[in-house]
Amino acid sequence: MKLKFLSAGLIAAILSLSSFAKTAWDINPILIGSELPAATIETVRGEEITLAKAINSKPTVLIFYRGGWCPYCNLHLQELAEAESDLIELGYQIIALSPDSPESLEVTLDEKGLNYSLYSDANLSAADGFGITYSLNDKTLEKYIGYGINLEKASGGKNKNRLPVSSVFIINENNEVCYSYVDPDYKFRISKDLLLAAAKNSSNFHKKSLR
Fold it and tell me: How many domains does the chain have?
């Protein structure tokens, strides 16, 4: 059975039974053609909302980033902001998710001046559904703390030791994944030019078989 015919609830149940990936290289992202997983996220005002409602059946560039504390993420968010007008012209909206709490999102919005929507995925509900979360070992956590990075504090107490792999998914109006860019190395991100090319040609990345 193809993955896209599994219900979002069944996918979530399967994921919940499996152990979390131990490193970023051990993740198992959902495939092109998969349906949007069921997930609950929060707005910057702390209001719970389903991911499906946030997307609202609109073509969407869905960004997962590690948090406002990550300099690579901040640079990438700003670069994608430069492509926002072109993406809107193509009919897309941009939604970015991170494990940051709504309060932490406010800081990112104020400091970076972003116009597109940021949502809190502090409990990693959406990231788990997309199969892109992994656990940090004690040594890495200690190193982060040495840098002044406290994942538990940033997430409002909802996350202690897990992160999403920085990823970009393009979701079509049928709530299906039609493009993905997932790189376990957090230093590498999709360029705005590649993203725009993917957005322009997303219908060609996922075509149903002719009968």
Answer: 1
CA distances from 196 to 32, 80, 118, 160, 191 (A): 18, 10, 20, 35, 9
Cβ neighbourhood burial of 51 (10 Å; 0-12, 13-18, 19+):
buried
Query: For position 164, which CATH number holds?
Result: 3.40.30.10
DSSP 44: T
Q: State the Cα–Cα distance between residues 117 and 47, nearest whole angstrom.
A: 14
In percent, how much of the chain has pLDDT > 70? 85
On whether the pTM is more than 0.90, the answer is no
